[in-house]
## 1
Amino acid sequence: MKISKLLTLVAALMLVCAAPAFAAGQSTLVPKIASFDFFVDYSGSMMMSHEKLGKNKMELTKKLISAINAKIPALGYEGGLHTFAPSTEIQPVAAWDKASYEKAIKKLNENEDTFARMTPMGTGLQKATYAKAMKRKAAMIMVSDGESNLGSDPVAEAKLLLSTNPGLCLHVISMADKPAGQATLDAIAKLNGCAVTAKGPELLANEAALDKFVRDVFYEEKAAPAAAAAPMDEVIVLRSIQFALNSAKLDATATSILVETAAILKTKKGSVEVAGHTCSLGTDEYNQKLSEARAKSVKDFLVKQGVESSRLITKGFGESKPKYDNSTEETRKLNRRVELSILK
C-alpha cells in the first residue's frame, strides 16, 4: 500500500499512527469555552404538552439539561442557569460541578400555571445582562419552543445581545412543535456562525447526537505532545472502535475498520501487540477479563483477514491505563478501546 493511500485511510478511519514526537495513543480534552449558561424558556407554552410527543415540554427540557450536565467533562468551566418569561436566576454563573448544577436543574418547575403566562422572549434577551460578566469564550444555550407573543422582536434582541457581547456564542435547542416557533429559533441561530443547533426530542432519543452536541459546544480532543521525543513503538490506535458496556463484541463499524487495519498490518513487519482496555465501571478482576476478551476479539478478526496469528500478541490492561478521567459516560466510552502496537 502506498504511503499516500495509507495516510488517506488513517485520516478517514481516525486511526492514529503515533510519531516519536507524540506519546503513543495519548490525547486530551481541551475546553472550547470558559463559561456557559442555559437560558430556558419558562413561559406558559413550555408548561404544555408537546403536540407530537404528548409530554410536558418543560419536563423534557429538565431531562435534557440533566443528560447534558452528566456528559460535560470536568474542565474548569463556570456554569449558570437562567430563565426568561419570566426572567429568573436559578443558578448564577459560577464554578461548575455536576452535583450542584443537578440540584439547580431540579428547581425548574414543569407545573407552573399557564393562564395568562405570555412569552416575552425579546424582553428576556434584553434582561440577560449577566452575559457581560461571563468568562470568554462563553456559551449561552437557549432552550425554547420559539413562541413569542409579547414585547420586542426576539431576533433583533438576540442580534443586539451578540453585538454587545463579543466572545459570546448563542446556541439553540428547539422544543418547538409549531412551524412559527421553529422559524424564530432558526433565525436566532443564524445570527452567529458559531451556533450549534439541535432539536431537543432528537437529543433525548439519540445518545450519539447528544454526545456530539456536548462535544461541539464544550470541548475538543487534541493529541498531547510527549515531554521528550524518545523513540517508541509505532502505535495504531483504533479510536473509532468503541465497545458497548460489558461487551467484547465487534459491531459493523468496528469490523469495517479492522478490514482496512489488516491491510495496513500486512504491509508491515514485526510482532503486533493487541491491547484491550476498559472503563472504570466494574471490579478489577471483571475488567481484566473483559479487556482480554476485547483484545482476543480483535485478534481473531484480524487472523480471519489474513494477518498471521503468530504475529499478534494479546494483552489486557483492564481499567489500569485510562486515556480519560472516567468522570462521564462520554469519557468512559472512549476508554473502552483496543490499541495495536507494532513492536520493533
## 2
Amino acid sequence: IVLQTLMVPKPFLDECLDLFHELNLYPAAIRVSSVGLFHVFSTHQDSYPKKHPSLVVDLALDGVEFVLVGGPEKFLSKKVLLSQDDLSFERLLQELERFFAHLELADEGLEKIYLSGPLAGTFIDDFRAKFGDCELLSEKLNLKRNGDSENSDLSGWLGAIGLAISGISKSRPGKLNLIPPERRVIAERPSLVTTLLLVGLLVIMGLALTAREYFQQRQLLGQVEAQIETLQARVDETMTLRSQRDQRQAELDELRALITGQQKVLLVLKELTERIPENSFLQNLNIQGNRISMTGFSSSASTLLKTLLDSQYLEAVESRYITPDRTMQNREKFSFEATFQESESEEAVK
C-alpha cells in the first residue's frame, strides 16, 4: 500500500485561488515545490535512484527544503523557513539531523546529495568537504538549450522545470493536486464581449503595424528619389568629364606612340650614319613598323654586315643578297633587313 498525504491550510489555498481568479487566471493544478524537484530526475543523467535514496537540498532565499527521493514513485520532503541571516552551514546540518531523525536510514545510507536553488553555489564546497559525493542538481540536466541559455545557471529554476514536467507525467507524485475537485472547473463562462474587444484590438494593432511599415517604406523611397534627383546633374557632369578624359588619354597615347616611333627612326638613322664606313653608302632605306630594309653599295658588304650585327638598336640583321656592282669595279651591291630592338630603343627614347 502506498499512502500519499499532502495537506495545506484551506484559508491560504482559497486566498491564492481567489487572487488568481481576479486576474482571470484559472490554474489546473497547484502542487508543492518538492514535486517539481522530484520530477527533475526524469531529465537528469543519473535518473531516479535505484538502490539507495538520494537527497536534494534546495537552498532558497526564504529557507531550505529537503527532498528525499527513493525512486520513480516515492519521495519525502520537508520545508524549513529560515531568514538569510540564520541560513548557515551549521544550521543546515542541524536541520538535516532533525529531518533524518524520523527516518530509518542507518543501514540504507544515501546514494548522493544534490544541491539546488539560488544559494546552491554558495554551500556546495562546504557540503563536498563534509559529505564527499555532492554535486549541483543542474549540472547533468538533459535539456536542449539554445543561444545564451546554454551557459546560464538553472539552479534557481529547477523547481519550475520539474513542475512543468509533472503536468505531463503519469506517475502518482505528478498527480498530486491541492485544488479541490469542485474548484478545478471554471465557474463562469468567459465574456463574449471581452473576447470580441480583444480580437478587435488585435486586428487594429496588426493593421497599424502593417500601415506603419508601408508608410515608412514610402517615406524612405521618397527620400531616396529626392537624393537621386539632387545628384543626377552631378552624376551626368562626372560621366561627361570621364568620357572627355578617356578621349584625351587615347589621343595622348596615340601621340606618344607616334613620337616614340619617330624617335626610334632618328636613333637608327643616327647610328647608321655613325657606323657605315666612308666606302659604303645607302641607296634606299625603308622602315615599316619595327622592320627596316636597306639597299646600297660598299667596297666590302660583308664587313658592313658585321658592323650592323653589332648595332645596339638593330637585331636579326640578315642579308638578302650581296652581288658585284656592274657599273663600278671593286664595289658590291647589297640588300639587308633587320628589326628594331624594343628594349634598347625604348630605353634610349626615354
